[in-house]
């Protein structure tokens, strides 16, 4: 989470919420203060996933059973997540329904919201504008903001991976060259300093990376990114990555499930049933 401790303090909140109940209570206070929390409910390829999957998981909901084929979305846990989101939306700017990936960044940088789910690009943009261009307003925002981990729900604390990967295809004209590149890139001697250069924007998901100090920036405002590999999951949980999951993600089914209930377009139970049917259609499509 990107957040403004000064806005939270002015609204009577001493620290970033550690539970979803606390986050809901904070949202009401920040709404009344005039600096609402903003959670992306639009069809944003990055932030749409990063904002919404962790809510489902924190309440114990899941899209699939471990086989990756049996849709498990229709559950009391998913329903509780949807009901929580419907309450949370009451204290957000309705504009979040149309937010794409740049929009929450812009809302935060123009001080329209007090917190939003995003990688560190908001902070890096503000810090770079301050350091490289002498932008006093961006310096104020960079100095005033901070980052926080996801609150914990009844089932735990989770984040979402937005994965990028390389692969050497079977019909590649130079497969050995591709493999050699991957071995060189992912060698610790290169990967560790490369990771630090990325200032926690690019985070290889390798076990133990958080225990290598040389991989991480010295800026204390970026320290929480070192912990993300411990809590992150991939869409499609509790199953493995699959074509069905990809189809459902590309259709923004989970985002729309929350949005449909938040806006009153559907009752929470209807939204969950609708999303479950959409996931089943994705499974059928993947198997055809």
Question: How would you sum up this structure, described in words?
Answer:
- By secondary structure, this protein is mainly alpha-helical.
- The chain has 2 domains: 2-162 and 234-287, D-Maltodextrin-Binding Protein, domain 2 (3-Layer(aba) Sandwich), CATH 3.40.190.10; 175-229, no CATH class.
- Helix content is 47%, strand content 4%.
- The chain has 12 helices and 6 strands.
- The strands form 2 sheets. It has a 4-stranded mixed beta sheet with strand order 2-3-1-4.
- The protein starts with a strand and ends with a helix.
- The relative contact order is 0.16.
- Helix-strand pattern, N to C? EHHEHHHEHHEEHHEHHH
Q: Segments where pLDDT lies below 50 for 5+ residues?
A: none
The CATH superfamily of the largest domain bears the name: Periplasmic binding protein-like II
CATH topology of the largest domain: D-Maltodextrin-Binding Protein, domain 2
As a percent range, the share of strand residues is under 5%
The number of domains is 2
On the 0-100 scale, what is the average pLDDT?
Answer: 96
Distance between the termini: 39 Å
The assigned CATH architecture of the largest domain is 3-Layer(aba) Sandwich
Classify the secondary structure makeup into a structural class. Answer: mainly alpha
- Please count the beta strands (DSSP E, at least 2 residues each): 6
Highest-level CATH class of the largest domain? Alpha Beta
Please, what is the oligomeric state?
A: single chain
Residues in helix, %: 40-55%
């Amino acid at each position: 989470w990107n957040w403004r401790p000064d806005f939270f303090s002015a609204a009577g909140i001493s620290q970033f919420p550690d539970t979803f109940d606390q986050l809901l209570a904070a949202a009401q206070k920040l709404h009344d203060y005039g600096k609402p929390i903003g959670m992306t409910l639009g069809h944003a390829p990055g932030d749409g996933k990063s904002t919404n999957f962790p809510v489902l998981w924190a309440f114990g909901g899941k899209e699939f059973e471990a086989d990756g084929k049996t849709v498990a979305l229709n559950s009391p846990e998913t329903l509780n997540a949807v009901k929580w989101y419907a309450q949370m939306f009451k204290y957000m700017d309705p504009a979040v329904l149309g937010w794409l990936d740049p929009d929450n960044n812009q809302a935060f940088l123009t001080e329209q919201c007090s917190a939003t789910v995003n990688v560190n690009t908001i902070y890096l943009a503000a810090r770079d504008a301050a350091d490289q261009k002498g932008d006093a307003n961006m310096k104020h925002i960079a100095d005033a903001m901070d980052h926080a981990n996801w609150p914990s729900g009844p089932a735990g604390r989770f984040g979402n991976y937005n994965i990028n990967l390389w692969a050497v295809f079977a019909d590649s004209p130079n497969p050995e060259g591709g493999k050699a590149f991957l071995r060189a890139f992912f060698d610790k001697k290169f990967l560790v300093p490369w990771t630090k250069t990325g200032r926690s924007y690019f985070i290889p998901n390798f076990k133990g990376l958080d225990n290598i100090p040389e991989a991480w920036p010295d800026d204390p405002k970026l320290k929480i990114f070192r912990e993300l590999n411990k809590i992150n999951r991939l869409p499609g949980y509790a199953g493995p990555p699959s074509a069905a999951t990809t189809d459902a993600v590309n259709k923004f089914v989970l985002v729309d499930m929350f949005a449909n209930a938040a806006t009153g377009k559907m009752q929470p139970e209807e939204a969950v049933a609708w999303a479950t049917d959409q996931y089943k259609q994705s499974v059928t499509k993947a198997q055809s």
